[in-house]
Amino acid sequence: MGKVVTATFAGVVVLAAAGGGWALFHDERPPAAAPPVPTGTAPVTRADIAERQQVNGTISYDGAYTVNGAGGTLTRLPAIGATITRGRALYEADGRGVPLFYGPRPAWRAFALGMTPGRDVEQLERNLRALGYKGLTVDRHYGLSTYYAVRRWQHDAGLPVTGTVSLGQVVFLPRPLRVTGHDAHVGDSAGGRVLHGTSAVPIVSVALDPVMAPSVRRGDEVIVTLPDGDTRDGSVARVSTVAQTAAGQQDGGPPQSTIPVTIRLGGKPVRTLDQALVQVEIVARRHAGVITVPITALLAQPGGRFAVVTVEGNRHEKVPVETDLFDETAGLVEVTGVTEGAQVEVPKE
Fold first, then answer.
1. CA 179 to CA 272: how far, in whole Å?
2. Contact at 8 Å (CB) between 40 and 63?
3. CA 21: distance to chain centroid?
4. CATH 2.40.420.20 for the 39-51+287-347 domain, yes or no
5. What is the reported pTM?
6. Which of 101, 232, 249, 317 is 20 to 30 A away from residue 258, measured at CA?
7. What mean pLDDT do residues 28-37 have?
8. What is the average pLDDT score of the chain?
9. Class of CATH domain 53-61+201-246+256-285
């Protein structure tokens, strides 16, 4: 009888008979079982949740402002894209700069001793104080303290030192101006529109489907994805109460109505092109005071259904649930089929 030689290579048994060939037999050892996933519990809670959806938006800058000149000949204009701040010249007429002061009220009269008190005087005084001129009272009265503060400012700005601010010597705008265009050229008369611009505050404009509008509220947090893939947190600053109707579609369809929504960005300054397209994750639906469980508690079941495992002491029970809104930001899902206060099984972090 032939001699039998046995060898094992990587789980395969090889038998060799002395007088003949090789025979192969697989080792039928069962594969090692996967270790169980460690679990914990989380409560079933009642909460307000919101489902979010991505919509298109456009980067722009808040506000729209026009600067009108008060006469003379334009001798200098700022570069398009420049940002003009308080005390800096918006333009130059007859060789003298016309500075920007902050305030919501446009200048409509000259400032001088003996003038009627008013909010415009207070606005001028606040700017002088902000520029470092002390010793004046911000009180709507153009008194001697204001007169002497104006003289010091005029001296430092290279303007005629008169103690009087003639109409057109300063321009009031609510905030810094980002210059976006010129309405006149150097050498033209400075008696009309000189330039225009926006604020320096970047915003995202969204033309929202009216169906989504009732769920979007001022102050809602959003996530904006920039063209380079970077993201910024933002919040809804304004939701228009008036729909806008765009022209008909290219395929000849009816005009489409949208709700203008303005989003203010947070974080570091945005360095991207004006009018660049962005993606905005915004609230699409909202439910208040509903039963919720962590999304991670859901177990997929046949037929697209879900279940959760409730835990009471050592007792674990799989319970079918119906789902509605998924709030991925909060990590919660609205369900029916379990009661508030119950504990459900979730993967342990």
1. 17
2. no
3. 75
4. yes
5. 0.68
6. 232
7. 64
8. 87
9. mainly beta
